[in-house]
Design brief:
It is built from 12 helices and 8 strands. By secondary structure, it is an alpha/beta fold. Strands 2-1-3-4-6-5-7-8 form an 8-stranded mixed β-sheet, with helices on both faces. β5, α8 and β6 form a beta-alpha-beta unit. About 45% of the residues are buried.
């Protein structure tokens, strides 16, 4: 990892993130790479709370708190204002959870990237509405328990592929990243910072509270998500050129699921079905990248 991303700290200690929060790890590495000339738009999410109430803030950059559904629109306005002032150095970043990206904020995001607005949109994905009580989102994976998919009503729909939705807009750059692979994460944030137009990063950010895992397991679980092909690391340029960044060991998905309380109800038959889904998605990604299994 380059010294550029190692030396500076733009996130203070004393924030109110939960122990083991993957979203705080993601923010720390992202800010190290983005630098001081950054304005961050925060739609309603866990990070609206983690950053701290005004006039305190755990972030050493300007932050604009905005409504759940307006991340893309607010960032578009901030970028337009900076351009009118002749400021081309400052990077505008939306930092949103999966609820504010996959669901409530998708309309504003889609409209902004269709116009190829010049900002970075980063979704830290903890796979549910964690800040408001662990309700399911369209990012919640098949098989998961949440407070709105509990008991025998666990989620029986597959997770939305948000990167492919953004790739369909033919934006200059879209990529996945993961807190357990910091070098890859930093490289992708840097690449997004240096690219013009709409850029989208989907960061896997484990949540011990909502996933029913010990805090010290947060990074291990994140690494296993990549190594089981549940969360592949790849990037797409101009909606066409796919590159897979990490070749996984392809552990069985049950090795990932059995460590999390939110999947404790699943049977062996359920896990076999999920393994088939993961294999199908991985093979599709390989074809898009022009690779073979």
């Amino acid at each position: 990892m380059q010294l550029e991303a190692m030396d500076r700290e733009l996130m203070c200690s004393g924030h109110v993130g939960c122990p083991g929060c993957g979203a705080t790890i993601a923010m720390r590495f992202a800010l190290k790479t983005l630098g001081e000339k950054t304005i961050m738009v925060l739609p309603a999410c866990c990070w609206s709370v983690i950053a701290g109430p005004f006039p305190q803030s755990s972030l050493k950059i300007p932050v604009i708190h905005t409504a759940f559904e307006t991340g893309g629109a607010t960032a578009s306005g901030v970028r337009a204002a900076l351009d009118m002032r002749g400021d081309e150095e400052t990077t505008v970043v939306v930092w949103a959870g999966d609820g504010g990206t996959f669901d409530i904020g998708f309309q504003a995001l889609s409209g902004a990237v269709e116009r190829n607005e010049n900002f970075i949109y980063i979704c830290y994905d903890n796979e549910a509405y964690m800040n408001t009580g662990i309700q399911r989102s369209s990012s919640t994976p098949y098989g998961a328990w949440t407070t709105t998919t509990s008991g025998s009503d666990w989620k029986k729909l597959r997770k939305k592929n948000i990167v492919e939705a953004l790739v369909a807009h033919r934006i200059p750059y879209a990529a996945t990243a993961n807190i357990a692979y910091p070098e890859d994460l930093v490289r992708k944030v840097r690449k997004a910072r240096e690219t013009k137009g709409s850029r989208f990063l989907h960061i896997y950010a484990s949540c011990p509270t909502g996933w029913r895992i010990p805090a010290e397991m947060s990074v291990r679980i994140a690494r296993m998500a990549v190594q089981t092909n549940i969360f592949p690391l790849y990037e797409v340029e101009n909606g066409i050129d796919y590159t897979i960044n990490v070749k996984p060991r392809e552990y069985l998905v049950r090795e990932y699921f059995k460590l999390q309380g939110r999947f404790r109800h699943l049977s062996e038959e359920d896990l076999d079905q999920i393994q088939g889904m993961v294999n199908e998605d991985w093979e599709r990604l390989l074809r898009k990248a022009g690779e073979r299994a």
